[in-house]
């Protein structure tokens, strides 16, 4: 029971101590961990230490424990002693079994080694017998072996002599068959003999061989510098001449010049690039047949040039720097500034044309293949790194050219309206121009994004490395594009005279003065860009062109749609106000001419509505026609049929019937007094409100501004009675048609009344027309208008 209460760790430690004390008579060899732990304990477990004192332990136990505890401790110690005895007994039995097993093993080893010594002695005797017989055979065959070896050396010498005598004939056969490599091999093999015996025994053979080799050297030089021979053939000829110890410096310079000349044939000019381009419809056919004629021919030429570089490098190991400079000329300008252009410079010229991404990818794939072929034979030139830098420039120019063409297409759709309107071709309506411009902006932007997405999704290694840069270029390109588009809109509207003509993107056309319809198209197009185009473009960029990071996070995001929306929101409002101002100024010039031309002090009695009223209504009709094509309809507000204080209505009422009996002077003064009182007690009317993107709002604003201009022109003149009555007649006729096209009739009534009041204030004798006369003149004008413009059923 006492053993079970002891923790497992303490039991294991005690077992280890017991085994240590059993096998080690020296107490100092016991476990240091146990010694250190025992020295630290002050409990009753000190009985296990080597310095245990029985008397002290018993005294301490008797002092601290009662009788029951002493009996319990006695039982525990008895159980522990029994367990320890059992463990020691089991340990002794296990060790005894191991000693028995070891003894059996030693016995078996002794029994197996007993016959081995005799076998080894027999083997040694056989080896000595074989050795003695081998020595006997060697002794008996020694003389014959020496004789055979002597005969073999003689036979080899005779073969060499025969080869020397046959060498001139062999060289002649090689010359006929143009097997110059065999001829050089034969001659270089015979050179040691010619050097040793050429002046004595083999003098004739040496002379004939040298004559044949002179012919071979001449032919090899001809092949080396022949334009009809391939580069590989000329390189092989150089190798053979080098084996013949021919002076190689001149050959090195001449062969390098040949390589430089052949390099000019590897360049892709614009015409070859066009031929190498792939139509998108034939893309599957091109992929199934990669060996198309232009690309396959060019690749074969580059492979031949690469092999020539490899051979040249083998022939001239010290020409690495010159070969590096020459090979770098394949993809970029020569470092020394030579006059011939390289692949990526050809692309820079190529992207200036209108090309698609498929064509660009095809050309880049051809160039990257050239780079890899050259890199295999001359990796020290680091052509992939040079190509990467050159490709960055080419891709940047392609992106810039693409956005430039997009801006040019949008400009064409807008300036086409301008040209058509100036030429008087009305069939090309503003609505058609607006739809074409919307399509050019939205569909053109989507096509551009699709074009760029094909580039970044291509698995060409060159483009994979440039993907972050391309994403940044696309985002920056759209940001700059919309900024340039805003500037171009301003140029077309005539509001930025400081912009140079080359930024107009209209070849041969100077946008000197924009017409009002184009400005209205620009206003609505700006709203479309803000509300429709920018969200869709932003969504596409977020889906396909996220990431990037090549420009650095410290520069902020490349594409900021919020800023673009703010720019075009402001531009739309600006163009809408500009349109209103342009229409107002045009009508104001008409009004100014009307009021500054006649002498109002000597004006005759009014007989009809003046013709300026027709012109005024025609201008308003033209304005309404334009806004109906571009702007949506709005809700009409503040529609009221009464003039809310107008005293010059042609309708009769009891008050005016009573006034007819008065004298003319009293009636005029009474009407003026009523008008002023009506102005005092009339509710405050807000005349100028914010211009909305609706038909009614724009037309109403134009009418308000024109009536205010009319009011100011009236204030600058002095009228007699007839002039005042003419103004009264014209304004009264305008009241009905103008109120039909505006959304705020109360304001229009107020402004028309103000014109009549101001005219009465500037009149020397402000006596208005009688209502019957006013009605008769207005009806006559309406009848005349109906006769001039009959309504067809």
From TrEMBL:
Main localization of the protein described in the UniProt heading: Golgi
Stretches the record annotates as Disordered: 17-50, 277-299, 636-666
Keywords noted in UniProt: Coiled coil, Golgi apparatus, Lipid transport, Protein transport, Transport
InterPro entries documented for this protein: Vps51
One record GO biological process: endocytic recycling
Sequence ranges of Polar residues compositional bias: 643-653
UniProt subcellular location: Golgi apparatus, trans-Golgi network
Coiled coil: 67-133
GO cellular component: cytosol; EARP complex; GARP complex; membrane
Pfam families in the cross-refs: VPS51_Exo84_N
Keyword Secreted in record: no
Comp. bias (Low complexity): 20-41
Function: Acts as component of the GARP complex that is involved in retrograde transport from early and late endosomes to the trans-Golgi network (TGN).
UniProt family annotation: Belongs to the VPS51 family.
Quaternary structure and partners: Component of the Golgi-associated retrograde protein (GARP) complex.
Protein name: Vacuolar protein sorting-associated protein 51 homolog
Gene source species: Carya illinoinensis
């Amino acid at each position: 029971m006492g053993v079970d209460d002891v923790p497992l760790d303490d039991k294991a430690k005690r077992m280890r101590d017991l085994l240590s004390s059993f096998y080690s008579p020296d107490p100092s060899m016991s476990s240091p961990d146990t010694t250190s732990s025992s020295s630290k304990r002050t409990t009753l477990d000190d009985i296990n230490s080597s310095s245990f004192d029985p008397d002290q332990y018993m005294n301490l136990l008797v002092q601290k424990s009662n009788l029951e505890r002493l009996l319990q401790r006695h039982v525990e110690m008895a159980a522990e002693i029994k367990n320890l005895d059992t463990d020691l007994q089991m340990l002794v039995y296990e060790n005894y079994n191991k000693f028995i097993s070891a003894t059996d093993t030693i016995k078996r080893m002794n029994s197996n080694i007993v016959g081995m010594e005799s076998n080894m002695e027999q083997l040694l005797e056989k080896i000595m017998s074989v050795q003695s017989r081998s020595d006997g055979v060697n002794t008996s065959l020694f003389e014959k072996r020496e004789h055979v070896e002597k005969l073999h050396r003689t036979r080899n010498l005779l073969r060499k002599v025969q080869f020397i005598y046959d060498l001139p004939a062999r060289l002649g056969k090689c010359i006929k068959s143009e097997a110059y490599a065999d001829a050089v091999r034969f001659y270089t093999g015979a050179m040691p003999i010619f050097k040793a015996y050429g002046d004595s025994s083999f003098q004739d053979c040496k002379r004939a061989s040298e004559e044949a080799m002179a012919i071979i050297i001449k032919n090899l030089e001809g092949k080396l510098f022949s334009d009809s021979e391939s580069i590989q053939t000329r390189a092989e000829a150089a190798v053979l001449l080098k084996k013949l110890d021919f002076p190689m410096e001149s050959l090195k310079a001449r062969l390098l010049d040949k390589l430089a000349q052949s390099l000019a044939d590897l360049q892709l000019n614009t015409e070859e690039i066009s031929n190498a381009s792939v139509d998108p419809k034939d893309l599957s056919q091109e992929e199934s047949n990669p060996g198309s004629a232009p690309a396959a021919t060019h690749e074969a030429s580059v492979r031949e040039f690469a092999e020539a570089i490899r051979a040249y490098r083998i022939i001239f190991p010290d020409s690495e720097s010159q070969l590096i400079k020459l090979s770098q000329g394949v993809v970029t300008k020569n470092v020394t500034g030579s006059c011939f252009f390289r692949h990526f410079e050809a692309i820079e010229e190529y992207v200036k044309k209108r090309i698609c991404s498929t064509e660009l990818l095809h050309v880049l794939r051809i160039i990257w293949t050239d780079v890899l072929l050259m890199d295999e034979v001359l990796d020290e030139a680091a052509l992939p790194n040079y190509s990467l830098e050159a490709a960055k420039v080419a891709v940047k120019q392609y992106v810039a050219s693409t956005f430039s063409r997009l801006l040019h297409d949008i400009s064409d759709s807008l300036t086409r309206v301008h040209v058509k309107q100036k030429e008087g071709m009305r069939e090309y309506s503003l609505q058609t121009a607006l739809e074409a411009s919307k399509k050019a902006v939205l569909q053109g932007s989507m096509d551009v994004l699709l074009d760029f997405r094909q580039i970044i999704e291509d698995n060409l290694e060159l483009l994979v490395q440039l993907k972050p840069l391309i994403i940044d270029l696309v985002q920056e390109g759209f940001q700059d594009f919309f900024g340039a588009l805003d500037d171009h809109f301003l140029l077309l509207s005539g509001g930025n005279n400081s912009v140079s003509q080359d930024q107009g993107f209209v070849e041969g056309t100077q946008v000197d003065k924009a017409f009002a319809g184009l400005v209205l198209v620009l206003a609505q197009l700006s709203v479309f860009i803000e509300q429709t185009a920018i969200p869709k473009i932003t969504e596409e960029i977020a889906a396909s062109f996220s990431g990037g990071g090549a420009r650095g996070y410290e520069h902020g995001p490349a594409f900021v749609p919020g800023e673009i929306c703010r720019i075009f929101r402001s531009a739309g409002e600006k163009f809408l106000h500009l349109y209103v101002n342009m229409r107002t100024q045009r009508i104001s010039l008409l009004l100014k001419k009307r009021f500054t031309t006649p002498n109002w002090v000597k004006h005759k009695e009014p007989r009809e509505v003046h013709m300026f009223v027709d012109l005024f209504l025609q201008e308003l009709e033209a304005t309404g026609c334009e806004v109906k094509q571009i702007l949506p309809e709005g809700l009409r507000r503040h529609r009221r049929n009464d003039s809310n204080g107008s005293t010059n209505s042609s309708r009769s009422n009891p008050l005016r019937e009573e006034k007819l009996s008065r004298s003319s002077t009293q009636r005029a003064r009474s009407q003026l007094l009523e008008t002023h009182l009506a102005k005092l007690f009339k509710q405050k009317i807000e005349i100028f409100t914010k211009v909305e993107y609706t038909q009614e709002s724009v037309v109403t604003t134009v009418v308000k501004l024109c009536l205010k201009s009319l009011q100011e022109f009236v204030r600058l003149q002095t009228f007699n009675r007839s002039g005042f009555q003419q103004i009264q007649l014209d304004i009264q006729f305008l009241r009905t048609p103008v109120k039909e096209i505006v959304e705020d009739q109360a304001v229009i009534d107020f402004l028309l009344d103000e014109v009549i009041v101001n005219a009465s204030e500037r009149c020397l004798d402000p006596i208005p027309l009688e209502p019957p006369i006013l009605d008769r003149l207005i009806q006559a004008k309406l009848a005349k208008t109906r006769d001039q413009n009959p309504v067809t059923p």
